Amino acid sequence: MTDKRLRADAARNRARVLRVAYETFAEEGAGVPIDEIARRAGVGAGTIYRHFPTKESLFQAIVADRLRQVVEHTREQAAADPGEGLFAFLFHLAEQGATDLGLTEAFAGVGVDLATSLPEAEREFTDLMTGLLARAQRAGTVRRDVDVDDVRTLIVGLQAMRRFRGERADRLYPMIRAGLAPR
Amino acid sequence: MTDKRLRADAARNRARVLRVAYETFAEEGAGVPIDEIARRAGVGAGTIYRHFPTKESLFQAIVADRLRQVVEHTREQAAADPGEGLFAFLFHLAEQGATDLGLTEAFAGVGVDLATSLPEAEREFTDLMTGLLARAQRAGTVRRDVDVDDVRTLIVGLQAMRRFRGERADRLYPMIRAGLAPR
DNA sequence: ATAGAATCGGGGCGATCGTTCCGTTTAGCA
DNA sequence: TGCTAAACGGAACGATCGCCCCGATTCTAT
User: Fold this and answer.
1) How many CB pairs under 8 A join A and B?
2) Which member of A72, A104, A178, B109 has the lowest number of beta carbons within 10 Å of its beta carbon?
3) Which residues of A touch B146 (CB under 8 A)?
4) Which residues lie closer than 8 Å to A99 by C-beta, 6 or more apart?
5) pTM for the whole structure
6) Which pLDDT band holds residue A138 (cuts at 50, 70, 90)?
7) Per-residue pLDDT reduced to its tens digit, A83-131
8) In which domain, by residue range, is A12 found?
9) Does B41 lie in the same domain as B66?
């Protein structure tokens, strides 16, 4: 995946930039100046642009990684309780969005269009949601007429609530759950 | 409210700027350049700054007006069915947010902090929500443990869904309603 | 150890945007 | 109609940001 045969200092700097950019995007969102990331990483802006041709490509690399983490985390958890898997996923994602503005923006389509720029990550994510939803419906915790697009919509709403309203959003989780339950 | 004794051309320009800014903020959000509004209004940027000392003050004037409209619209509708008033309000606001980025941002706290910059509008709005909520609870369509802050949180979530997911968000309205209903 | 290539850092360019300034125009009154 | 002050518009300023360039530095193969 990473280009082979990077010089030792280049590899070190690339890793450092990724790590710092990760934290910085999470804190500040896609609006952060590249210079700010360069400063925090202790490198020049030129160094960042040698590894990532544009700011957007750096942003994408990080979002892809973040999505992979969420998918993995969910796969580990979801095996246990089919009925709760989808809810655990939704609320976990809402929490993530609260401390990771970059992730929230990615879902809302700010800065990146996941479907076109990161098709594999997008597909993996969709498959995950499809599976969780089907299992929850089979277990009887979610109405039959909910589809994957509804789940996607819910994610956007939940992340917005969590981001802009903080922990007050937690109070709505049980109501969301009740709203999805079969009547 | 408006300063008295404006020269005729000044008054005409002020009104034109307000109208154009209203439309432009709705379409493009708080990010629009002032020059763009000036261009659309057929005036110079200087003219705008003579009437509104900063971009933010122009933005606030418009948000205040928008809030007043929503409050008025809701008051007209709400008298009829106490049980449905809150839901009509919520979904109306979601629709408004879909075509008015400025309003969405105002609720989410982007660009303005309503509570500190427009305290009277904020209070009027809060009173409206309090009344709608109490009436719905009395009518038995909303759980007793829902408070005004929860409603505010819901608004943020609903507007985000509507904005970023378009009409797909409509499918979730019935589920939101069900989620708020007493168990 | 050293040459040569890969990499580095940060100043600089061009674009954008909020805001100000000022020479010009125009409304309103006598 | 002529005078004055208010209002106009748009060029210009300063700050910000994405991205590029290039002289200086550091790595690595020999």
Assistant:
1) 82
2) A72
3) 175
4) A26
5) 0.85
6) very high
7) 999 999 999 999 988 778 888 878 777 767 777 788 888 899 899 999 9
8) 1-53
9) no
Tell me which residue of B149, B137, B146, B132 sits closest to B92, measured CA to CA.
B132
Q: Which two tokens mark B66?
A: 């928008």
Chain A residues whose beta carbon lies within 8 Å of the beta carbon of residue B31: none
For A149, nearest residue in chain B (alpha carbons): B168
Identify the three-state secondary structure at position A40. helix
- 3 state SS of B91: helix
Total domain count, chain A: 2
Residues B81 and B159 in one domain: yes
Strand D nucleotides within 7 Å of a protein CB: 6-12, 16-22, 26-28
> Which nucleotide in the DNA or RNA is closest to residue B5, CA to C1'?
D6
Within this chain, do residues B99 and B173 fall inside the same structural domain, yes or no? yes
Amino acid in the structure at residue A97: G
Shared domain for B9 and B92, answered yes or no, is: no
Amino acid at B110: V
Helix (H) or strand (E) holding A134: helix A119-139
Backbone φ and ψ of B142, nearest 5° = -135, 140
Does residue B76 sit in the same domain as residue B5? Answer: no
CB contact under 8 A, A156 and B158: no
A148 at B interface, C-beta within 8 A: no
